[in-house]
């Protein structure tokens, strides 16, 4: 849609339904729980990944961080909203990325440091991954960064700055 908008092209294609899809949410805190609720509203199966297991009606199953590869194999979407800690740095590594289905979509809305960026770039260059990124190891993202030219990446510069949480009109 974005590329068609740039070209002024009106083209429709069948949208993919979220219904019956599986989502893994890394970081089931306040934000992760809200994302889980939205996913359940679309009829998705929700797998939570966190160091603290909580009983939530919007999470079908909970896993610990040690189960990242197992969850990555199952999900259609992997959403990252965990904080950056020494334990979470590069938690989404080459093992997790290679375990993901070729059709799966990675969304990093948390912190850039949670994803091994070099491993992600390699996976994206092979053409078997898709992702949406809202946060990066270096912000602003340098003009020469490979993400800018990748057709299987959506670059969003909106994340990573807590001051925007307070600046709403």
Which features would summarize this protein structure in a list?
Rossmann fold; 7 strands; disordered C terminus; 169 residues; 5 helices; 7-stranded parallel β-sheet; alpha/beta
Radius of gyration: 16 Å
Shape: globular
CATH superfamily: NAD(P)-binding Rossmann-like Domain
Give the mean pLDDT.
Answer: 91
Count of alpha and pi helical runs: 5
Q: Report low-confidence residues grouped into runs of 5 or more.
A: 163-169
Q: Major beta sheet, specifics?
A: 7 strands, parallel
β-strand amount: 15-25%
Q: The CATH topology is what?
A: Rossmann fold
Description:
The chain has helices at residues 2-7, 30-41, 68-74, 94-99, 117-125; strands at 22-26, 45-49, 61-63, 77-80, 105-108, 130-133, 153-155. It is α/β, with parallel strands linked by helices. Strands 3-2-1-4-5-6-7 form a seven-stranded parallel β-sheet, with helices on both faces. The protein starts with a helix and ends in a 14-residue tail after the last strand. The model is unreliable at 163-169 (pLDDT under 50).
């Amino acid at each position: 849609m974005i590329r068609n908008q740039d070209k002024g092209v009106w083209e429709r294609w069948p949208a993919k339904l979220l219904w019956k899809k599986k989502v893994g949410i890394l970081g089931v805190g306040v934000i992760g729980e809200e994302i889980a609720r939205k996913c359940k509203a679309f009829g998705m199966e929700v797998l939570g990944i966190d160091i603290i297991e909580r009983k939530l009606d919007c999470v079908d199953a909970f896993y610990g961080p040690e189960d990242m590869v197992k969850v990555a194999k199952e999900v259609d979407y992997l959403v990252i909203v965990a904080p950056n800690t020494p334990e979470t740095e590069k938690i989404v590594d080459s093992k997790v990325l290679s375990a993901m289905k070729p059709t799966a979509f990675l969304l990093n809305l948390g912190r850039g440091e949670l994803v091994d960026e070099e491993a992600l770039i390699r996976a994206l260059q092979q053409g078997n991954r898709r992702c949406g990124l809202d946060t990066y190891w270096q912000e602003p993202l340098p003009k020469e960064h490979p993400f800018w030219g990748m057709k299987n990446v959506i670059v969003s510069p909106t994340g990573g700055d807590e001051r925007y949480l307070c600046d709403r009109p």
